Amino acid sequence: MIGRVAQVTDTGRKRRRNEDSLVCEPPLFAIADGMGGAQAGEVASRLAASAVREGGPGDAGEERIFELIQEANRRVYDRASSDPNTSGMGTTMTVAIVDGDDVAFGHVGDSRAYLIRDGRMEQLTEDHSLVNELLKSGKLSPEEADVHPQRSVITRAVGTDPDVDVDTFTVTGRTGDLYLLCSDGLTDVVAEEEILELVEQNRPDIDRALRALVKEANRGGGDDNITVVAFEITDEAVNDGQTKEQVLPADYEPPPADDEDTLTEADEVPVVSGDTMIVRADDLMAQSDADRNGGDAEAGAGAQPAASRRRILRRRAAAWLVLLLLAAAIVAVVLWKLDLFG
After folding, report:
1. Which CATH number fits domain 2-244+272-278: 1.25.40.10, 3.40.50.720, 3.40.50.2300, 3.60.40.10?
2. At what angle do helices 206-219 and 192-201 cross, to 10 degrees?
3. Per-residue pLDDT averaged across 188-201, rounded?
4. Going along 191-256, which residue ranges are E strands?
5. Is pLDDT above 70 for 266?
């Protein structure tokens, strides 16, 4: 059964708008992180979240989640195709539906689903990103991936094509499980060990735990929007169907409250660069292979243009020589005629 649930979304310190959207309507949960410039990212994530919310959990299970995400993809793609202001927009999407002991998931992009069980945290979803492709192929170490300049490049998104590939899977839940759906505004800034520590410190009050995660992400810079949805599996239903309902233990004493972070004018300056980009995985890997060849590729690339330039110069010289010879011939004919009739 579904126990306590919580949700939080925050613009962060450096964005004008929040392009994240969420659904927290037990047994249905979802997050979407939009992209596309101007207000298109916000439009994409809201369209996707609305499609999931309006569709509802239905018969639950992976097939239902697949249908919901395909409908979200259709709505975003149709809008992007008909409205020039939103052309090229897309969104990540991670969806979960609880059905008895089972939790079914559907996933596209680099938002994440985590499971916290017995004091450990496991990432359930796989990032559809350039960095993850390079990690899987052994071309990047985890340390290099953490600081890679193209961490925001994703290889799959909702709404960029008529159809979308969706990863679906099911986890058998246990009493005490806590699931988190997170946008990369959290996971790009706060390490998994810190996420687990903050959640466990505030576990009796999940709302407070999520606020602590947002605060930590903002302390780390708050470069992106931050969204987290959490839900718990229990023996007895604690949630009454309203997303804010929680029951705290009678002996619970919240940790001492510290001062909330405040934003300065400098903090509120929007980030112009660093937006998420969508690039196909095949294209990225081909480019990566070319880059890995390094010197040989550069030498070959350098030699080919140089040879082309030499051929062009030879052709131009030959053309000028022909013109000069022709001019000389004309001058000779003119002089001959002047001598002949002079």
Report:
1. 3.60.40.10
2. 140
3. 96
4. 226-233
5. no
